[in-house]
Structure formats: C-alpha cells, structure tokens
Amino acid sequence: MTKNRRAGLVLCLIAAIGTAGCNWRQTTKSRDVSTLSPDEARLYWLAEVAKPDVKKDTILAAVRFFSLTDKPAAEKLILRGQTMDPTGPWPAELGRLYFLTLVGATSATAQGVVGTVNEADAHGAYAEEIRRFLASSSDVTLLAVTAEALATQGRTLYEKHSIDFDPVELANTYLARASKLDPRSAQVRQSEENIRSWVAAGNVPLPAIGASPGAQDKGPGDAAGPKQ
Q1: Domain membership flag for residue 7
Q2: What are φ and ψ of residue 114, in 5° steps?
Q3: CA distances from 187 to 60, 83, 149, 169 (A)
Q4: Which domain holds residue 153?
Q5: Short-list 31, 41, 32, 54, CA closest to 1
Q6: Count: domains in the chain
Q7: Plot region of 166 (φ>0 → left; ψ -120 to 50 → alpha; else → beta)
Q8: Which of 32, 72, 74, 223 is the most exposed place for a label (fewest CB within 10 A)?
Q9: First and final CA of the chain: distance in angstroms?
Q10: Model pLDDT for residues 135-152, shown as the tens digit of each residue
Q11: Distance in angstroms (rounded) separating the CA atoms of residues 22 and 51
C-alpha cells in the first residue's frame, strides 16, 4: 500500500466515525475489495461499518472478511446486525463463524470452502471460549449450522490432517444437543439431510449420534449419517 493511499484510507475511516461516512471513491478507483491488500481491505470495511446508515448487506460482507482475519470482530458485527434486524440470517452466520473459529481457518474460497488453517488458532483462547459457549448454548440454529459445517468441511480437513481433533464427534454432540432442545426443529432436520447428502456424494460416512468415535472408520455402507 502506498503512503498516500494509506493516508487516504485512514482519513476515510476517521470521516466515517466522526461524521456520516466517506465516499470510497475518494480513496480508490475501484470498489472491488478483492483487489485490495489485507490492510486496505481492513480499513475499507472498518470505514463502511462505522457509517451511521450502514446496511445489513454491508455488515454481512464485512463479517465474511473479518471471519478469516479477526474472528472476535466478526462476532461483534454479527451481534450488531442481529440487533438491527432480529429476523436476519445472523444465527446461521454465527454458526459459520464458530466453525471457522474451531478449525482455525485462515483462508477460504469464494464458495466458502476452507483453504488453510492455523492449528494454534484452533486451540487458542477464543476458540476454547467458543467451545465452552456451544457446549451450553440453547440456540438450536447455531448448534445445527456449526455441526453441519464440522461434519462436512471439518471432516475433509481432518482427513487431510489439517486439524488434530475429530470434528464429526464434536458435530454429533452439537446435533444431539440441538435435537434435545427442539426435537421438531426444521433446521436440525435440514442440517442432518445436508450431511446425508454429503455422505451420499461419496464422502467419508458420518456415524450416528451417540456412536463411538471408532464408528466413523467403518466403510461407506456402515453409516448413512446422523440418526435420531
């Protein structure tokens, strides 16, 4: 980032916090954030979410950025969005963020598939805090979405030896808790169906809820996904 460009971004952020925001076109000719450096993108999103008239879609986009670079900041933005729009997709976004936190994700594709992870982050203070929170959470959607991601993407990372804990076992505990909280939950049923579809596509089978961890090593015909 050039010195002049950084100065412009900082002034933009100050303007956003102190007044009604700033016009990004004053500091860059493009709104394609993917072309910016990490530092530029961070300043851009900080300026955008600091605007008093910030929209839900902007907060969601900022969440996607910070979910890989500053997960606590992403969590704060999600909670802020939930306050603005209680009926929005915030529980699902939080579930996605918590999955990324638990596996220590540091990069992802445009489709949301985790590319790289940091093992230290997966066992860091924030990740451990999230583990404790989920263990006692009563948010069915949050539990189901987190479990689904762990049982699919997480399992792939585990098979590649990118993470050192069994995400399927953890997913089962969250699905079991969600089902106990709300046996008729549509979100839980949908997450279970999504996991079964993932298994049917030729991926590693998922053991039934309550099965021993060793059950996951059985062949494709031995498990068809979580069952109640």
Answers
A1: no
A2: -65, 130
A3: 21, 22, 13, 19
A4: 86-217
A5: 41
A6: 1
A7: beta
A8: 32
A9: 54
A10: 999 999 999 999 999 999
A11: 8
Q: What CA–CA distance (Å, rounded) separates 42 from 35? A: 12
With tokens 């956003």, the residue in question is 16
Contact status, residue 171 vs residue 198, Cβ threshold 8 Å: no
Q: Give the integer Cα–Cα distance in Å for 149 and 168.
A: 10
186-201 pLDDT, tens digit each: 999 999 999 989 878 8
- Note whether residue 3 is domain-resident: no
Amino acid at 92: A
Hey, what are 21's tokens? 């925001």
Q: Is 202 left (phi over 0), alpha (psi -120 to 50) or beta?
A: left
Single-letter residue type at 205: P
Give which of 152, 160, 171 is closest to 112, Cα–Cα. Answer: 152
Whether 70 is in a domain gets the answer no
Q: Is residue 119 part of a domain?
A: yes
Give the DSSP letter string of 20-86. S---GGGT-S---GGGS-HHHHHHHHHHHHTSTT--HHHHHHHHHHHHHH-HHHHHHHHHHHHHH-T
